[in-house]
Amino acid sequence: MKNTPTLSLRVPEPSGRPGDTPDFSHLKLDAPGAVDRPDVGTAPAEMRDHAFRLIRVLDDEGKAVGPWNPKLDPETMRRGLKAMILTRAFDDRMHRAHRQGKTSFYMKCTGEEAIAVAQGMILSREDMGFPTYRQQGLLIARDYPLATMMNQIYSNAEDPIKGRQLPIMYSAKDYGFFTISGNLGTQYVQAVGWGMASAIRGDDKIAITWIGDGSTAESDFHSALTFAAVYRAPVILNIVNNQWAISSFQGIAGGLETTFASKGIGYGLPALRVDGNDFLAVWAATQWAEERARTNQGATIIELFTYRGAPHSTSDDPSRYRPGDEHEKWPLGDPIARLKQHLIAIGEWSDEQQEEAEKETVEKVRAAAKESEAVGTLGQSRPSVKTMFEEVYATEDWRLVEQRREVGV
């Protein structure tokens, strides 16, 4: 054993740190339209390459090309564009609200808007979404009241969750939005279980869920894949690979060894890898997976390849761990700019319309903020004390009765 080297560990490192020039030369990106579209009934073993390729529809000139082009009508694309613009404006407003001391916490989804908006438009409100904290576009695309979202962020007297959740951890059953959990990965097993229950009932509703690249290292992720594959659960399993977890890049979760989509191969699941900044590609891949789920062919893994442009949260400073201009250099661009370019290229949008839409959106968010802040921001207004005794047990325990009496409510 004298000639063997000393053992050492390899600690993955990102391609750039603060002060470095962003370098994405290591990325292997298929040309728009280059990836074939398999039949929905294709066996997972016959489409393994799709876990390593990258489905893209929009090219650099804004043209929709290739077999994955969903050929959406202009009005649907305009609705999608406006929903993404609104999502970003909402994020900006609430981020400022945090800086003004109106809330304790916020998380933006800058650069990832196409994912939740497209998928929220495709699926029905009766299907159930199990999101992370960066799918606010799902609610916004479905016209959930902005002021109600703000009330929850402020935990004020009109908070629909009655102060029981952290800001941005929404819950809206009527909008197909399951309560967000701060525990990473739990939504994956919940979504699979919900889908299985729907199938057991003989219903026609499916589940969809999202997880970040870092959370694929959680055990719940692997448990969910096992059950989804074995029971052919009607569920769409999204992995949003936005390159960074809180302050560790996606290589720490195994992103340098293989793609996140390929993790589905070992479980016998079909896997697609998609340009998450391409609204049309996200739409097409989700539509493919939806058809598979609704026709009893089981679950699909979709890795959505994107970039987290903003800090992880208002508690994070990305300038301490990545190049400051890395987001601007992301080779797959910005989802809003790309869909705007496409609509202009086909004569269904203009720079003037874009400017007007952005102004209208800012006014809409401002009006919602005025309505919500009139109720009160964090600490200025809160749900009634009596609500903490409600909706805990179907029948009140004697201890709750005694506690309520002591409080006088």
Automatic annotation (TrEMBL):
Keyword Amino-acid biosynthesis listed: no
Catalysed reaction(s)? N(6)-[(R)-lipoyl]-L-lysyl-[protein] + 3-methyl-2-oxobutanoate + H(+) = N(6)-[(R)-S(8)-2-methylpropanoyldihydrolipoyl]-L-lysyl-[protein] + CO2
Q: Which cofactor does it need?
A: thiamine diphosphate
Q: Where is this region: Disordered?
A: 1-39
Domain annotation Dehydrogenase E1 component: ranges: 82-376
**What's the EC number here?**
1.2.4.4
**Broadest EC class assigned to this enzyme:** oxidoreductase
What keyword terms does UniProt attach to this protein?
A: Oxidoreductase, Thiamine pyrophosphate
Q: Name one Pfam family in it.
A: E1_dh
Q: Which family does it belong to?
A: Belongs to the BCKDHA family.
What does the organism's lineage look like at the top?
Bacteria, Pseudomonadati, Pseudomonadota, Alphaproteobacteria, Caulobacterales
2-oxoisovalerate dehydrogenase E1 alpha subunit N-terminal domain mapped to chain residues: 5-44
Could you tell me which CDD domains the record lists for this protein? TPP_E1_PDC_ADC_BCADC
What role does it play? The branched-chain alpha-keto dehydrogenase complex catalyzes the overall conversion of alpha-keto acids to acyl-CoA and CO(2). It contains multiple copies of three enzymatic components: branched-chain alpha-keto acid decarboxylase (E1), lipoamide acyltransferase (E2) and lipoamide dehydrogenase (E3).
List the protein's name: 2-oxoisovalerate dehydrogenase subunit alpha
Keyword Secreted attributed: no
Species of origin? Brevundimonas olei
